[in-house]
Protein 1
Amino acid sequence: MKNISFPLPITKAMITILVLIHANLIQAQNKTVISGVINSSGRPIPKAVITLEPSGKTILSDDQGFFSFSGISNGSYTIRITNMGFKEYIQEISLNGHSLQPLRIEMEPGIDLKEVNVTSRITKSNPENLVNAQYSAMPVTIIDRRTIELMGSRRLDEILKEQTGIAIVNNIGGGARSVGVQMQGFGSEYIMVLIDGQPMVGRNNGNFDLSRISVSNIERIEIIKGASSSLYGSEALGGTINIITRHGVVDPQMQATLNYGSLNIIDATVEGETPFLQNKGTANIAANYYRTDGFNTNSKYIQGTTSPPYDNYSLQGRSRYQVSENSFLALSGRYGLRRSFMQKDFGLGHISGDHQDEQDLNLSVSFDHRFSSNLRSITRYYLTHYSADMSVAWQQNNSAVSQDVFKQTLHRAEQQFSYSSNNSYQLVGGFGGSIENMNDDALTGANSLETLFSYVQGEWTPFKKIKAVGGLRYDYTNNFGGRLNPSFGLQYFITPKITFKTGIGTGFKAPDFKTNYLVFYNSNGNYLVIGNAVLAPTLQQLQQDGQISEIRQYVLNQTAGNLQAEKSTSYNAGLIYEPSKSLKIEGNAFYHKITNQINSIQVATGAGNRIIYTYQNLPEAVNKGFELAIKLSPLKNLEISAGYQYLIAQDLSVKDSIRAGKWPYNQNIHDPATGNSYKPRPSDYWGIENRSRHMANASIFYRHDPWKINANVRVNFRGKYPFGDRNGNQFIDKYDIFVKDYVLTNASIEKQILKDHLTIRFTADNIFNYTDPLMPGQPGRILLAGVSYRFFKNK
Amino acid sequence: MTTIQTIRKSSILLLTLAVMSFISCSSNEEDTAASLTDGKSNVITDLAGDTGASMGSGTDGKEQRSFHTFLFRFSDQKQFWLHTKADSLQYMKTTDWDLAFTGPYNSEVFVNNAKYQYNPGYGGPAETTAVILLKEAYKNVTQAPSDADFNTSEITKIGWSSSESSAGWFYYSLSSHIMQAIPDRTYAIRLPSGKYAKLQLVNAYKGNPPAVTDLNWPAPYFTFRYFVQTDGTKNLSTN
């Protein structure tokens, strides 16, 4: 195993910044102030989150409901207040050199249901991006910082797998480290992951492993379910996950957190935030260390771990500086390093060593300018680099099974404008371009993917009862061409208690270099894959060399040089019913049609029975179903919520093949229980692997104010889902291998002491210790204890 | 409202599930090796094939060469390796073996036969042997087919079932890169000795796992079972 140490320059920089923050903690400030008191029915509201736009500063109200932003320059601002159990409060303020009278704010109790929240107004909480989920015609789920803290989760995948309709899935064919997220039936390759609105890169077989991201510095997570290419372009075919990091401060503070428990998990975070230069600037910085021993869900056959042990270091910073009255300059950066070595012993000295080093860098610069209170511009540049050095070897004879070094770099520049006419409409438009490079030992030569894009998004309230959102985006890529993606959503407030909402959107994913240009020989499987664009000449060459025994001419004619972009169209419609201030019910039906999915097909047979594949487009797949969500608050500080998703995800070409009697789909299905065999019918097709028909979750969050205790219990159910084909007919029927239904129960409790400076937390994940060999990535029971200490000035 | 009722039902369902989870939380356990034993058949588990070879280049430690063939004799479960030319000369053209495990990962299986030119027994004494694929569960095969059927059988190699006409024993998934034995494929065999036998190839992965959950699960380690009717009749019942 390699020696692990944190890079020295980073450690130094971190210490310097933390010392500066500490110095600022002692300093006093006295500038123009926006302050106020938040009440509801005569009682003060503590711990409400107050955001000041466009500075992006965020603070919490104290026990008396009091909050204060100091050192604010002249200009116009919007304050936005959110708190669990209350409706969002928004107020416009303008400053002209004098301190304002403290504001008296009355919050209205109610529920801001975060699930299935189509076209509702979303806090513009990322100050460096004008394009946001607010303009999505697809349902948006938001997970805020407080919920993340209360859940006691450490990594991003742990948070997401507790959301309705989202699953974390292992891709066996991609190796032990290929883990991805699945959403409303869309696989990880169709879900775009963004950080502060900029795409993250680095995938293993199309899967983005979310466990490489710590949740410690996340302000909120915005999840869009459904085709969203009109907002984010190629890749957002099935949805997006946007991570918004912490930003904006008024009072300097520091926090140190340490969690320790099962699997020798250590999760340690130090974070600090401070204003600087007479409050013209703000800075946030956070460092996180996480380690785990990994775990084993298949101890009957394997000694060692099925999920990798690893050490993860990350450093994240974000700063914003007011250059002039109406201009801000912002910088943000993130660096992550994960080192992992996993051993597996299959018995008889068959020990495999699986090693991976991953590095991840994200840097962004943006310039934000307000021309007037209506017109705003953001210019931004983004750079991300990902590298993974992977190998798997058998230890007894030091023989490598696979070795690969993968590097990906993306540069992206963008210009955004927004225009709002007070309350009737808002428009956002922009253009930009990106260059992406991918280097892989398995690819022949380096490639670069160039993209240009331009878009317009808007929100319009023509009548009091109707609100519409829409968008249009054009993307041009050098290896594929252009594509236009529209979206449109509508919200109709039928009565004050009932709202109808609906939306439509499209998505696409351009064929990548691999599917067009890669010629790859798999030695383990003795097969050859030839990229579609180079298929005809490569086959011709092989034939001249006497390497071909048979060419399937009809497949060749149909596929060669004719690979289309994968496309999706998403529809959704639903109702929100809010019979009282403490109860909210939502139902939403969705229908996603995916066409031209890229898949492999045999095109020829080589000498020595070597099978030769290329890529083709499949006609159509459909994910359809519905979501239900209920949220109620029967008592003050008690919130109960539940969600359910019903999903059917099917590849319609399988049904066609069964109907047409094509081999191997036409093989008789054998019932092992009765011994009967019968001819398959299209209705025998169960659906796509890894998709559950039923998924559900329920949670109870409670806060007991006098004791300053927060507690929650969450139950997550996942219905049985197909693992793989058992009987060789290449489609899933009910006699194939299924992962059984399961329930995972998680709980967390925290108590604040020492005038809220110290928080003690106990977390229990998977309390009943449920594991399944078919789920190599789902650990058994995890118990953790943690403390966090906050340094801040007592009022 | 019906929606509310549905939701109430589903929350009741959830609560029930939560309660159920308190009572039991068993995991997926299937013992496939035990279920192969029937008291009459020979069950071979984890017979190591050639684990030292590799199909392609760039694999340190493993030689890039074709996999060494091994032969297997039913009567005493003896494995003969054909490492050298001398081994081949000594064993191939004899009736000392019944099965040959050849090709990539030793996954292509031949019944000793003198007539087919790629059979390791080509030109040897095993002139009357034949194999027939029966698409039935092993235990349900109680009778060997007629000699007329054996005489006309055209099955030569039992390997990857990559087409409709293939009598292969496994299917290789291009998405998961895992080979999977096809259930309900039993091979009726007329042996070099003239006796009748039945054979089921069960797995090529070490430990005969119910499902392969790791791309690098050690292979080839063969699990298979067979029954030879020693009295010379066609009765293959193992119940």
Protein 2
Amino acid sequence: MFTIGPIGFLTPWLLVALIALPILWILLRAVPPAPIRRRFPGVALLLGLRDEDAETDKTPWWLLLLRMLAVAAAIIGFAGPVLNPEGRQAGSGPLLVVLDGGWAEARDWARRVERAGQLVEDAGREGRTVAVIRLTDAPEDVVFQASDAWAGRLAGMEPAPHAPGAMEDWAEVLPVDRFDTVWLADGLAHPGREALAAVFQDKGDLTVIESPRPVFGLHPAGFEAGKVTVSVSRSSAVDAATVEVAARGPDPAGIERELARAVLTFGPGDARASGGIDLPPELRNRVTRFELPGLRSAGAVSLTDDSLKRRKVAIIGAGPDQEALQLLSPTHYLRQALEPVADLIDGSLGEVLVAKPDVIILADVARLTQLEQDATLEWLEAGGLLLRFAGPRLAASDVSRFEEDPLMPVRLREGGRTVGGAMSWGEPKALAPFPEDSPFYGLPLPDDVQVTAQVLAQPDPELGARTIAALEDGTPLVTRKAVGEGQVVLVHVTANAEWSSLPLSGLFVQMLERLAVSTRPALPEASDLEGQIWVPEEVLDAWGATREAGEIAGVEGAVLAAAIAEGPGRDVPPGLYAGLDRRVALNVIGAETVLAAAEWPAGVVVETLEVAAEKSLKGPLLAAGLALLLVDILAALLVAGRLTGLRRGAAVLAVVGLAFAGQARAQEATPGPRPGDDFAIEATTAVVLAHVLTGDAEVDELAEAGLAGLGDRLWERTSIEPAPPMGVDIERDELAFFPFLYWPVTADMPTPSAAAYDKLNQYLRTGGMILFDTRDADRVAFGGTSPEGQALQRIAAGLDVPPLEQIPADHVLTRTFYLLQDFPGRHAQGSIWVEAAPPDAELVEGMPFRALNDGVTPVVIGGNDWAAAWATDASGVPMLPVGRGFAGERQREISYRFGINLIMHVLTGNYKSDQVHVPALLERLGQ
Amino acid sequence: MTPGSENGDLRTRAEALGQTLPPLLAEAEMLASTVMLGEHGRRRAGLGDEFWQYRPAHAGDAARSIDWRRSARSDAHFVREREWQAAQSVTLWVDPSKSMGFTGAKGREAKGARARLLALALAVLLLRGGERVGLAGLALPRSGRAQIVRMAARLAGETADADYGAPEVAGMVGHGRAVFLSDFMGDLAGVESALARASDRGVKGALVQVLDPAEEEFPFDGRTIFESMGGSLSFETRKAGELRDRYLARLAERKDRLAVLARTVGWHFSTHHTGQPAQSALLWLYRALEGGR
């Protein structure tokens, strides 16, 4: 290969063509640009003028240079230039390419595979056979094959999410013959690495390729003094460095995002750095994983299990705190037991319910108010755990005496019982072993737990099923009942040592733990895990991404315990394992994992991964040549004076480009105008009366004309100045912009879709008003119905319409602007319906109307065909006749007045219902 | 589009333009031979329908000319005089040559189209004012609305093969008025002779030079061969941009010459660009024919 500096040429003889460039220069120079022919009457004035200089006859030098460069780029491009051509040293014999294939390689896996591919390809070119092995795989016989066989397989290789294990096993499956080895290592010391390296050295040359960058590993987070502690290890402890640790988890909307971030600092020589993240419990309980942002590796991720979660527990004692000794306080032992492992919330029941605790403990609280009980029940239904302790108060009260209290698991017998006291027979009772279906099953029973007094459950068919702990004689000690998603648990003794020694024992703490009141210790003991099958829920891949475990089989507890101690392996991938009642995270980096840099035996050549890659310059050069030719086209046009037309085009292009850029930016910052915006702007620039499009063109037209006519009257007579009315498609358009919807009901109108109903109900709830007009008052007498009436029933069935009543004489609609008693439209006899007044509204003596200071009626229903009476054409002339003669015109006038009153009512609400207006109204009414 | 509808189109547009001005009253500097009774008061006593004044009867007045009703109110005899009313003859000439077909930009009217529009609009105004309007060489001056239709048809059908046109003086009524609409890009000798002959016959009028904005700006550059619209003239340059100043100087010189020519014979001269609205030119023409100020 012919090389100049760092560039080599594949076909250097093509460069000879460069000699032709000067000739081309002369040729091109001689040919001037072609003239344009223009028709121009003013030529008569041009005759006789002379060009000032004849130089432009020839092509300008810069244009020539441009063309030369383009041609030169093409020639050089075709000559096949290559940047950094590799001078390869030839080898012989089979080549073994070894990849560690563990999590530590994930961060630069692509480059490693590429490098391995290069090695394989080179070996193929030299006629060597190749084998590629990955140390994370189970050892199998190494077979040397032609390099072609490996090319495809290499690309498909993926790193495993665990460290290479059992390296020495590979030594046994190596071929007997000599071979050379290239080992792409992850830079960490793994057990057996030196031994395997020695074996490779025995077989032939060993070259090691590893990245000099340190490997970082994130240890599982712990919990200490109210803070989450995180620590990070690194493989080369030389310089000071800082790393960031991010805690990620779902936000309240369920979208996973970063919840907190801590910066850890490695001092020079430190292999491990730790720090704390102070997280409020709400956030802490959401954290699903900690990770080193920017590092794509399973070692940079630490999944969290239940050990980080702190439950929120509210402890509520009985009544006001009495100044008794603290050890006698009903809540003292609970606080002692729970303080280290849970977040305690203080306050009254009403207050703590707002904080949505996981558990509420009522220690000897007998009676709850109805309000508290309802709220607690609601919270229980949603999955709360209510833990109640008995006590003198509960025993004395008649809570759950005759009927089971919703907040008690069982009915109680009056008074309770006392055993083993001075005034009673029998011995204090000990606990019976927990039944198998009890959550306490398996807890060891200490001998010294004795119960001297308790409340007794009424025998009940369900009592047996609800008992989860009993005394020796079978008396229930702890009973439980499910309420919705949650449960109520009653401990039949006090939470202090008054009635039993249970709160003094370790069993009490364990029982609380089993009831999921308190939190478990962070690291599961091997004994906790044994005896169960742990099914992976989520597993990590080597890059630190989690995915659903799918069909991966569960593992024995013992195996999982071993994996937690020693790190995951082939059979136990890192991830989240679920047992019966808890989840355990298995992370790549354990709490005690040490990341040490690999040490290689003497005589091993260690290379770094970075190699200046060979890069073909052919493509860029040809592209540059083409670009130059394109520029040449523009330049030639410029020289020939033909760019005038293009100038505008270019300006347009530039403007369009800018617009696109601007738009792109605008889209990042604020969303650009969207399709519905025109509608929104039109509907919101002024008060717009709207009518619902029924699909019947005639009705729609009349409705629009009617609202236009009403709008004119409003404009003339009131300070409401509505814009021209708009038709609204309830399926498609946004309704929130309109204060008022006129809905002429046609018999064949389709029932709105669920989405439209949602919109309509939202509209009605948020203060909109719909005037339903069946337009059938002329045909329908009292109690009768019409197709339109039936359609209205069908449509209104899905609407959130309050109880209605026929409009009372003192309804605010009768006086919002005009004083009215009739509400005629084109028909005068129909009755109209509005939201019913509250039943307790009373007419006060001497007042003309009741005090009905509630909201605007969301619907007005009638059949008087108001739009027909309101409708005017473009010149303001009524479109349809109303009644006869002057009486008819009077009816139209009253109809307009009704419309005005209605819109006033919509816009001013019950303002005229205020008693402040009473004197003025009385005066006007002449009373 | 059929030629008929084109005529109709031209006519409607011209009428629309004409409606924007009050009827044009051409001040008549008369000559007896061309005087016709018309609607234009001459501000002097003469033949006509409108009352002008009473004057005391002198000797020689025919007895039948005495207005007895007026005379009965006083001791003297009065003669009732009527205002002298006359119609003017206006001859329009629109350059039909090929150079008028030029337009410098897509969507802009050709100069010829604009010139025809102006001519016809003027004709509409004049006819409405009761004048007699004709096209030089094409239609004799007549009054009445039918003349508009006739003129529109003649104008639309008129073409010439020449690159540049010279004003036509045939059919011009002596002591009438004339309007020449052209780009005046051709040889000015034709214009000179036409003006000379017109002034010989006592015709006054206006020259309107209709130019395309491209002809005023000369927005060309680069190596260009310019050709006249008919192709009879051609001119090659290597750097059209450098000719701009000299071209513009020549154009200005030509305008000056036309203005001087017009002034010497008592005509008016104006330049109109197709890039501007036609109303301004029509207004100017209206003023020019009306007042001569």
Protein 3
Amino acid sequence: MIDRRGSSGWRGVALVAVTYVYFLIFAQFAFLSRLAELNLGGASLKIVLAAMAAGGVIFSLLAPRVDFIPSPTHRLRIAFAACAVGALLCLLPLGIVADLGLSFLIGAALGVLTVTLVTHLREWMGDRNPLLNVGLGTGIGYFVCNIPHLFAATPQDQAIIAASLCLVGIALASTPSESSPTRVPTESSQFSFLRALATFAALVWLDSAAFFIIQHSPALKAGTWQGSAHLWTNASLHLIAAIGAAWLLQHRRSGLVLSPAFAALGFACFLLRNPALALPASLFYPVGVSLYSVALVAYPSFLTSATTTRERGIQAGWIYAGAGWMGSALGIGMGQNLGHVPTLFVVVAGSVVLIPAFLQLSQSRTREIIALSISFTVASVIYCLLPARSETPALSEIERGRRVYIGEGCIHCHSQYVRPNSPDVLMWGPVQDLQQVHAQQPPLIGNRRQGPDLTQVGTRRSPLWLRAHLIDPPEISGGSIMPSFAFLFGDQRGDDLVAYLASLHSGDTQQQFAMEQEWQPAASALAHADLEEGGIIYQHQCDTCHDANGRARLQYLSQFKQPPANLVIGPFQYLPSAASSADRTAQFSRISKFGIHGTDMAGHEYLSDQQIASLTLFLMKQSSTAVHHP
Amino acid sequence: MSADRQPSMPQHATPGVAGAVWHSLVWLVLGNTMGVMIAILLLLPGLNPWLGEWTYGRWMMVHMNIALYGWCSLPMLGFLFKVYGADRGSFSNWCRPVLWLWSGALVAGSISWLSGQSSGKLFLDWSGFARVFFPVVMEALWLLLIVAFISKPQGDPDSTLVTRIAKMVGLIILAAVPLAIYFASSSSVYPALNPDTGGPTAASQLESSLGVVLILLILPFGITRRTQSLSKAVTLSWIVFLAEAGLCVALGRTDVSHHRPAQYLSLASLLVWIPLIPAYCAAFRWHAATRGWRIAMFWWWGGLVVSGWVLFLPGVLDRIKFTDVLVGHSIVAVAGFLTALLIFVMIQLMGEEDAWIFNRRWSFHAWNLGVLAYVVIISIAGWIEGANPAFTIVPGPAREFLYIVRLLTGVAMLAGSLEWLTAASSLPALERHVEVELQGVNVA
């Protein structure tokens, strides 16, 4: 079936996707792994890769000039066939000379394939939404490569799959219709060839450097490409970004594709300098890559100002040879030699991408730029002149911690208000004086409790508990949905926050303690106590500290004021041995609910009477076992 | 309901109004996207490490503030452009820069919230540079409005002495808003408290509700005209408003509990606006295309007023304070009532030809039914939580189920808003170099 005017362009989508999958999963990945399996490294590896780049550069430039195979379909089929042969040959245990030849063949075949495909892509993309089809093909290509089964497959399997896809490509590359000029919204006057060449070179360079650095840093690789969740996320981000890029190109917003592509890639490179930030980097990297990858196909196919097919082909050749192959080689070289992307290079690359975009923008958005510049300047001057800013006194640890509390948006999950004459008082009390609330600037009452009220948290929790909880909430409070704030402990903020939280105590604590001492679960709750439920609560809430091998116990053993009691063998310092069973039940319940003041033992004030009774039943059972089997 | 026709209104949106619509929708979509992300984080807290330092709490600030100062505020710019004639004539080219400035301030704010800067005040969260930049942007808007107002030709048939005085008063009030925002964002300013809940007093709620009523009463004068027949509803509405304003003053601004009968009974006075607002609106001419959203607005308004009063009653508020029920109530306010009002106003501002972007059936229902389902689900969760805090703090299957359904309703709302944004992006007035013939003025 030939795609004619009015057709959907599915062949074009498939051809772009197949080409990307071959390039990404085989040429960039499996082939390199295969070379590593063949113990090729050091200078030999560099020479082999240089051969691929040479093949790519030479044949990208030659492809549009090859006159003895006039049919683009035939050229495409030959290129696909050569790619397939290259993939299959790499399965053999070749020596360095053969690898050199094979590498050149792969580069050459890819050069012909990519340039021929984009030069004639109009013929396969249909005329309904050709740019969206480009985005779809690119997105699918990246998506497929990130499917965990394919991504984690052996190099041999990946090579076979790549070769098979080339055969599919041969079948798809049917003779295009000559009478179906595709109409697309072009903005050629705003996006010159030289600008495209320089922009793509900068972006490919950044991408290749980041790719190489991630691939050769185990910590970064673990944070970005390992695990099914990561890969599915990457796949989805690639697909969404690619379709988004295509939509923007379709609506003549190329500036909104390449500038954000640079921003995402540049930011990812910046984050990659710290392995702890590999996770956020892994969100930006695929977005940046997919954004520009769509443009890399769309520009020579549809957006160039070239008026003839031959001119389009020559431009595509230069872009793929210069920006693609050379930019890639330079990026890999940067990754190899420096191990990171220098900030200065990001600035230079940013200038290449953003300055033309800014100049273009300034022509159509002169008033916006003037208004923004004036307002920004005026605001900056006022901001610098504000007296409050220059006269800020040095803050105490607690005051700094309060700022961290505010800045992290803690009030969106934690209130600081104990409502008088309500169940709040027993759980989070005592009640704070209203004048004290008003004296805070500002009061941090909040309006929502996703977690406990913190008005008196300094009474109820020790600094060690607060620190441990901020670092790993679900471990310390089983089932907690609070995010980890471990990053705050990379500098002073974590300790400041702990100091602030520990300072939150006021009111009549003795009366509060007396009220807690009088409390016991409702009789009905005790009557319906469930041992199984108690065991589950114990596992979630208690065993991290009270189990002999509990994670928190092992991690903080030397820092506890008193080591947490082992609830199987004791000793139970706060549980009088001579007490009756009823008294022991009451005391276990109180400790479970309110903790032990003055120690690191925290309460679980928010648990219902029924849950506390079940937990108590479980603990009684455990401790009675201890008595019988010391 | 009165006649739905107003032949003198332009059929297409002016570039200024179209720009305001587009910018509003961009922030709505961004806000909804963040809302969906936040809802996912509450279900899958294991995803939090992916956000690095941009944790849940920081995103909540961005989510709430861009909803408030983006989606809920930018349509008001379109309204002001229209009222002061800034979207027509020689200064109309400056509407778009002012809109970009406003969005720029929101970007500056978002950067500050994501980088951990906050005033600590939920709805006046401007701090650092953004606290200065945003008022400066508001001043730029004011400058455009006053220039447009002064440059309006004297012979304009719409420009009577009364309207000029009213607009002048409006400008004087608007001039004070940037400073008010700056000082109200200060950490040392905080309203009176209900000592039994830590929340607002009835007087505070009455005051803010009357502020909304005042906007509803003023809005028609800027964007449409009265019907031919005299309406008692208009006179009655203003009398009731003044009476309630007096009541508000009498209640004062002290810390008072909601258990005091004077508090919840005075708040009950707002119930009179449930029939009055539709009656008041019926005294004005509206485009026929506004009908769907106008009626939706009345329904949400009724729900908001009734639920606002019921949730304030002793016994009820004691149970639901700090729970998801109040989240549901705020969703009724912002996503239900306010959104319906804003869209209704935007359709009126744009004209009938461009009304289709908001009037497609599926997005209308996706939004309104999504909000309704959201409110029901979250209210159930909150009511349970009111008796058992562990329901939220240590989530179990029941809470997870409710939150999954809540997430789906959020996705429906996001889908609806995405369709509006996609449609608005094709508004003719947004096209570069397009010429729009409008009331005899050739606007490039």
